[in-house]
User: What shape does this take?
Amino acid sequence: MLATKPCTATCVIDGIAVTLTFFPDTEVLRITDSTGSRLRETRWSASWQSLVATFRELSETPVEDRADPDVLFASHPRAHAAHTRFAN
Assistant: This one.
């Protein structure tokens, strides 16, 4: 296993500040609240840049047109590849 430094960013989702932590070597993505409590952990098999672009696109998409988070962050590591666009 590679000892790659995790990538982190803070953003607001549904009015809540969250921290995204992505470990490129294991493809683990953790989403935590401001207290550090884990809200979700999943796999993201694309790059950090792709993750940031996805969140940027999500923030610019009207709420009624957004994908279900369970679709966006599906438990299957490759599932998000089929959902790179939010209009379905």
The beta strands are 7-13, 16-23, 28-33, 38-43. DSSP finds two helices and four strands in the chain. The chain has one domain: 7-83. The first strand starts at residue 7 and ends at 13.
